[in-house]
Design a protein that fits this description.
By secondary structure, the protein is an alpha+beta fold. The chain is 49% helix and 20% strand. The strands form five sheets. Strands 18-19-21-22-23-24-25-26 form an eight-stranded mixed β-barrel, surrounded by five helices.
C-alpha cells in the first residue's frame, strides 16, 4: 500500500471522527431544541386554558362575595317577615340581580335560596328555561349545605340535552340577627346566593389563541366527558380510559419535556393538566409535527457533516502531498541513486523542517559514504582493535599460502593461540583494560622473531583467539620453537591500570600437508590441538594428532546422544539398598542413574555425568531424577508397600545454577510425600567449594526437612567447620577406605577416626562398597550405623527394589544378619 494511502487511512478517521462527533452533538442539541419547542407549545396551550379557567373561577368567587354583601341582598336575607320580603324587599333585590345580569353576561342565572334550599328569587338570561319545580329544593343544595366553606363551586351538566355545562357557584349568606350586632355574635345562615356561570366566553377565547396552536385542545370532566374541543372531532364524546388515567400536574413542569407522552393511534404528542373545578385539560400535537423537522434536520446535519469531512480530507491529502509525500518521492530517488554508486547526488529540497533536515542528512550520508568508502574496505579485512588481519583476511592469506606451498613443496604450520585466563581478567578489570591487554598482546605477537627463512602472518581470529600462519618451515621443531617463543612473550607481565597481571596461552599446532590440505580443515585441526593443550594444564603447546580428532569426535557424538537421552526415555533409575548393620533391616535406598543409549549402548555415569555438567544438561537431568524418585516412592506407597527414604545425588553444577527448594517442595506436594521420604547427597568436594550463597541453598533444603548426606567423605579436605555450619545428618565413608579396611592398618585407623568424629557430632555413618563378610564384621565392631554394597544387594530396577520392600526374598539381606 502506498504511503499516501496509509496516511489517508490513519489521518482520515482522526479528521472524520471529530467532525462526525460534532455533527452528532449538533443534531442532538437541535433535536432537543425541537422537542423542547413542541413541549413548550403544549405547555403554553395548557397554560392558556388553565389560566382562563382559573380567571373564570376566581372572578366567580370574588363576585359572589360582592353580590352577597350588597345591601339589598343582606336586607332581604335578614328579614324574617314574608310579607315584608315580598312587598318591600324583593323588588330592590330583583333590580340588583338584573343589574348584575346586564353587567356580567356570562352569569346566565342568579338565584336567592332560602336556608332550606328552596328558591325565592331568580333572574336568568333570556331563553334559559327554568327546569326546577316550584317549591322544590335546588338540585345542588344537598352538597352545598354540607360544605364547610362559605363558597362552593361545581360543574353543572343538566340532564336535558339542550342545556349547556355551566359553573355553579353557591355563596352561603351568614348574618347576625340585626345590624347592630357584632359579626361574630348570633350568626345564622340566612340563605344562599347561587350563580350559574357560562363557559362560552372562555371557549371563544380558547378557539382563537393568539399564538396559533396547530394542535388540539380538549377540556373534559374527570369522567372523560369532553366539554370543549378546539378541533370539533371530540365534541360529545368521551376520552379513552387510557388518557384519563395519565398522570397530570396541577401546573407547568420545570422541564419542558417532562410528561411529554405519545398517544396512539395517530400518533400524537400530548400533555395533560388538571384545573379547578375538576377539569382535565389535554393539549395534543400530531407526532408528524416533530418528526418532519427532525427528518429534515437529520438529512441536513448528515449532508453538512459529510461535506465537511470530504473537504477536510481533501485539504489534508493536498497538504500531505505538498509537505511530505512529494519531498519523500524526491528523497527516494536520491537514495536510489546513492545505492547505485552516485554517492554525491543533488537533492532539490531547501525546507527548514524535519523533511529538510532529512534531506540534509541524506546528502551528508552520501558524502560520508564517499569519504569513508576506502576506510570501510580497509576495515573489512582488519581488526579495528588490534589492527591485525581479521578472520576473513587471515583465512584468505592461509589459502593463498597453501596454494604456494603445494607448488614448491615448502612446509607450512598453523598455530591457534587462545588466552587461558583472559575472561577472568576481563570480568574483573572491565572490557576497557581487557581491550588494552589484547592490543599489547598483538604488539608482542608481531614482535616474535620468525624461524630463519620463514614468514609469519598473524591475525585476530575472534575474542581472545589469534591465528598465526608460518610459511617456509624446514622442520617440525621450528613450529615448536615458534610456539615456545609466543608462550614466553605472552607470559611476561602486562601493566594494566597500574598493576601487573600475568596471562598465559594455550597453542594448538597443525601442519600442512600432514594434517590437512585446505584452510578450513587446518584451522579446525589447530583448534582441536589447542583444546588438547588446555587439557594438558594450559600454558602449553600441543600438536594435532588423529587420536585427538577421534577423541573429540567421540565426545561430540556422546554429547549429541546425551541431548536425546531424556526426550527419548533412555535414562532410568536403579535402587541400591542401605542396610542397618546392627539389625540387618532395610533402612533406605540410593537412587543411581543409568543410561542405555540406542547408539552407544550402556554408558557409565563416570562418563556422561561430567559431560552433562559441562554442557548444562545436568539441570534437566537432575530435575528428572528428583521427579522420578518422588513418582516411584508414591507408586510404591500406592501399591501398599511400606516405603523407606530414597537418597538422590545432587550435582555441584546443578546446585550452583539453581535453587532446588521450590521444585522439591512442589514435587513433594504433587505426590503427597513428606520431606522424610527424600534425602539429598552431595560430595565432600562440592561442600568444600561452596560459596556462601550456595551454602544458603543447602541450608534451605535442610530447613525444608530433607536430610543432607555427605558422600565420598574422607576423599577431600574434611572440615569440622563445614559439618557444623551445614548441620548435615549423615556422612558416607568412601568405598576406597572400606576396600582397604581389612588389609591396611592405616585405613582402619582412618575409618575409626571418621566414625568417631561423626558420632561426636551426632551424625550417622554409612559405609559404601561393603563386599565381604570381614568388612561387615569390622564395621560392626567400629560402630558403623549403616552399610551399602554388593554384599547386601546390587543396584536393581524399581520392581526388584519393591520385592525388598515387601520383605520377599529375605536371603538378600541374610548376610547382614
Amino acid at each position: 500500500m502506498r504511503l499516501w494511502a496509509k496516511l489517508a487511512l490513519v489521518l482520515a478517521p482522526l479528521v472524520a471522527g471529530p467532525v462526525l462527533a460534532l455533527g452528532w452533538l449538533s443534531y442532538q442539541a437541535l433535536r432537543e431544541d425541537l422537542e423542547e419547542a413542541v413541549a413548550r407549545s403544549l405547555d403554553s396551550t395548557l397554560e392558556a386554558a388553565t389560566a382562563g379557567l382559573g380567571t373564570l373561577v376566581e372572578s366567580a368567587r370574588t363576585n359572589s362575595a360582592l353580590f352577597a354583601a350588597a345591601g339589598p341582598v343582606e336586607r332581604y336575607a335578614r328579614s324574617s317577615d314574608e310579607q315584608e320580603r315580598t312587598a318591600l324587599l324583593q323588588a330592590p333585590l330583583l333590580r340588583l340581580f338584573y343589574q348584575y345580569r346586564d353587567a356580567y353576561p356570562e352569569y346566565q342565572e342568579l338565584r336567592f335560596l332560602r336556608p332550606d334550599g328552596t328558591r325565592e328569587v331568580r333572574v336568568a338570561a333570556v331563553g334559559l328555561p327554568d327546569r326546577q319545580p316550584s317549591g322544590a329544593a335546588d338540585p345542588g343544595f344537598a352538597a352545598v349545605s354540607a360544605d364547610p366553606e362559605p363558597v362552593s363551586l361545581s360543574l353543572h351538566r343538566c340532564a336535558h340535552p339542550d342545556d349547556d355545562t355551566a359553573l355553579l357557584v353557591y355563596r352561603r349568606i351568614t348574618l347576625p340577627d340585626n345590624f347592630l350586632s357584632r359579626p361574630d355574635e348570633s350568626l345564622r345562615v340566612r340563605g344562599y346566593l347561587a350563580l350559574r356561570v357560562s363557559f362560552e366566553p372562555l371557549w371563544a377565547r380558547l378557539r382563537n389563541l393568539p399564538f396559533g396552536f396547530p394542535g388540539v385542545l380538549i377540556l373534559a370532566t374527570p369522567e372523560g366527558e369532553v366539554l370543549f374541543d378546539s378541533s370539533g372531532a371530540w365534541t360529545g364524546r368521551r376520552l379513552p380510559p387510557a388518557l384519563r388515567a395519565q398522570p397530570a400536574r396541577p401546573g407547568p413542569a420545570e422541564d419542558a419535556n417532562a410528561d411529554l407522552q405519545t398517544w396512539t393511534p395517530g400518533p400524537w404528542l400530548f400533555k395533560v393538566r388538571r384545573s379547578e373545578p375538576g377539569f382535565l385539560a389535554l393539549a395534543a400535537l400530531p407526532a408528524q409535527t416533530l418528526a418532519g423537522p427532525l427528518n429534515r434536520l437529520e438529512l441536513t446535519t448528515l449532508a453538512l457533516t459529510g461535506l465537511a469531512v470530504a473537504l477536510l480530507c481533501a485539504v489534508l491529502i493536498a497538504w500531505l502531498w505538498r509537505l511530505v509525500l512529494h519531498p519523500l518521492a524526491i528523497l527516494r530517488g536520491a537514495a536510489e541513486r546513492i545505492g547505485t554508486g552516485a554517492l554525491r547526488t543533488a537533492i532539490p529540497i531547501t525546507a527548514t523542517d524535519e523533511i529538510g533536515a532529512l534531506a540534509a542528512a541524506v546528502r551528508a550520508m552520501g558524502e560520508h559514504l564517499a569519504d569513508h568508502q576506502e576506510e570501510i574496505e580497509r576495515l573489512a579485512f582488519h581488526d579495528p582493535l588490534t589492527g591485525l588481519p581479521n578472520r576473513r583476511l587471515i583465512r584468505e592469506l592461509l589459502a593463498a599460502r597453501i596454494t604456494a606451498a603445494a607448488g614448491d613443496g615448502r612446509g607450512l604450520a598453523v598455530l591457534f593461540i587462545d588466552l587461558d585466563n583472559f575472561k577472568q581478567i576481563n570480568d574483573a578489570l572491565g572490557h576497557g583494560l581487557g581491550d588494552t591487554l589484547l592490543q599489547s598482546l598483538a604488539r608482542r605477537l608481531t614482535g616474535v622473531a620468525p624461524p630463519p627463512a620463514a614468514e609469519i602472518h598473524i591475525g585476530r581470529f575472534g575474542g581472545d583467539e589469534f591465528l598465526l600462519v608460518a610459511d617456509h618451515l624446514r622442520a617440525l621443531e621450528q613450529a615448536a620453537d615458534l610456539a615456545q617463543g609466543i608462550l614466553a612473550a605472552t607470559a611476561e607481565p602486562f601493566d594494566l591500570g597500574g598493576a601487573q597481571y600475568v596471562v598465559t596461552a594455550s597453542i594448538g599446532i597443525t601442519l600442512y600437508p600432514q594434517d590437512a590440505t585446505d584452510a578450513d580443515d587446518l584451522i579446525r585441526c589447530a583448534d582441536l590441538a589447542m583444546y588438547g593443550a588446555k587439557a594438558r594444564g594450559r600454558n602449553a603447546l600441543h600438536f594435532f594428532s588423529a587420536d585427538l580428532d577421534s577423541r573429540v569426535a567421540a565426545r561430540l557424538q556422546m554429547e549429541n546422544q546425551l541431548r536425546l537421552a531424556l526426550p527419548h526415555g533412555e535414562l532410568s533409575l536403579h535402587y541400591q539398598p542401605i542396610v542397618e548393620l546392627a539389625s540387618g533391616r532395610l533402612a533406605s535406598f540410593e537412587a543411581l542413574l543409568r543410561w542405555h543409549s540406542e547408539t552407544l549402548g550402556w554408558v557409565g555415569p563416570a562418563q556422561f555425568i561430567p559431560l552433562a555438567e559441562e554442557t548444562g544438561l545436568i539441570g534437566d537431568i537432575g530435575r528428572w531424577v528428583l521427579a522420578e524418585v518422588c513418582r516411584q516412592v508414591a507408586a510404591w506407597r500406592h501399591a501398599g508397600y511400606a516405603t523407606v527414604p530414597v537418597a538422590v545425588n545432587v550435582s555441584a553444577v546443578q546446585l550452583q545454577r539453581e535453587c532446588l527448594v521450590e521444585p522439591v517442595r512442589a514435587l513433594l506436594a504433587e505426590h503427597r510425600l513428606s520431606a522424610a521420604d527424600l534425602q539429598i547427597e552431595i560430595t565432600e568436594s562440592v561442600l568444600m567449594e561452596q560459596t556462601l550463597h550456595q551454602t544458603g541453598r543447602l541450608q534451605a533444603l535442610r530447613a525444608l526437612g530433607l536430610a543432607i548426606h555427605i558422600d565420598d567423605f574422607g576423599t577431600g579436605y574434611s572440615s569440622l567447620a563445614y559439618l557444623q555450619r551445614l548441620a548435615v545428618d549423615c556422612i558416607k565413608i568412601d568405598h576406597g577406605f572400606v576396600a582397604r579396611l581389612c588389609r591396611l592398618d592405616g585405613d582402619a585407623t582412618l575409618v575409626t577416626a571418621m566414625i568417631s568424629l561423626a558420632h561426636a557430632l551426632h551424625l550417622r555413618v554409612i559405609a559404601e562398597g561393603i563386599e565381604t563378610q570381614d568388612q561387615l564384621e569390622a564395621l560392626r565392631a567400629l560402630g558403623c550405623d549403616l552399610g551399602q554394597g554388593y554384599l547386601f544387594a546390587r543396584p536393581a530396577a524399581a520392581a526388584a527394589a519393591a520385592r525388598l520392600l515387601a520383605g520377599e526374598p529375605r536371603q538378600v539381606l541374610a548376610a547382614a544378619g
